[in-house]
Amino acid sequence: MGLHDLDSRVTAPGPDTAAPGDEADDPRTALNTLLAHYADLARSRRRGPVADPVFGDTTWISLGEFRNRIAGRSVCLVANSGQVGSGSLGAEIDAYDLVVRFNSYRIDPAATGARTDIHVTIHKHALNWDQRVDTRLVFGGDVGAWRSSLRNRLVPGAQKHLGDDSLRWPLREVGKVGPQEWPAIPTTGFNTLFLLDFLDVNPVIDLIGFDFYESGAYRTSEAMRMPVTSVHEYADEKTWVLDRATKVTGHKISLR
């Protein structure tokens, strides 16, 4: 069966034999939904490298490809916290194989380190999208808004690899953790550390400066004018992290 066959078959469920009000119980409804998801996934997997010139020399990277690229490497996730900004951890941070930063991160080499290998950002703003990195992951719960943000905000040549739809919303889409289990919207940092913990291919996963904004924020000047959002549940994220920590020091939480 080709993709065009799936597309044509999922658009119409066939003759309606269900009683009025019973559409939700019709097994064809679930089948059509499943086929639609399969068709979308198959199209995504077959598209190959990013062809749109807007994206420059960027190549899509899937969940499996991302896993293979980071496997066996030490990784640190650097928080945008006052603890990091006022510290002197730069050399320690730059010594990891992979340095991950978030959203509106701010660089002060002595305090924060100079390298950014992976930039992870929410799709709702375009802070630091112009900074050159190897890999950029853009998170978003709404697939339509996510695609629109990539179209309008991605900077050509600023990244070699771009996470595709399989990396769009790790807690929900990779871990299959629903709102019943985790009602709050996950932060970018939590989505990322959940993803790395789930993949479980790194010998070292360290969180640097993750005090969940107890020391305030350390971000770009533009972002410092923005309040710390209240839609996230920082206490629950902190509990999740500490329950899985193998070691905790003054500035570092180790998950591996």
Question: What does this protein look like?
Answer:
It is a single chain. With 256 residues, the protein is of the alpha/beta class. Helices cover 36% and strands 15% of the residues. The protein has helices at 3-11, 27-46, 63-70, 82-85, 90-94, 109-112, 143-153, 170-174, 188-199, 221-224, 234-244, and strands at 59-61, 75-78, 98-102, 118-122, 133-139, 159-163, 205-208, 247-248, 252-254. It has a 9-stranded mixed beta sheet with strand order 1-6-5-4-3-2-7-9-8. Strand 5 (133-139), helix 7 and strand 6 (159-163) form a beta-alpha-beta unit. The protein is globular and about 60 Å long. The N and C termini lie far apart (44 Å).
Topology diagram in text:
Layout: H1 3-11, H2 27-46, E1 59-61, H3 63-70, E2 75-78, H4 82-85, H5 90-94, E3 98-102, H6 109-112, E4 118-122, E5 133-139, H7 143-153, E6 159-163, H8 170-174, H9 188-199, E7 205-208, H10 221-224, H11 234-244, E8 247-248, E9 252-254
Parallel strand pairs: 1-6, 2-3, 2-7, 3-4, 4-5, 5-6
Antiparallel strand pairs: 7-9, 8-9
Give a nutshell description of this structure.
The chain is an alpha/beta fold and 256 residues long. It is built from 11 helices and 9 strands.
State the low-pLDDT regions, or none. 3-19
Global Rg? 20 Å
Structural class: alpha/beta
User: In oligomeric terms, what are we looking at?
Assistant: single chain
Order of helices and strands: HHEHEHHEHEEHEHHEHHEE
Defining traits:
alpha/beta, nine-stranded mixed sheet, 11 helices, disordered N terminus
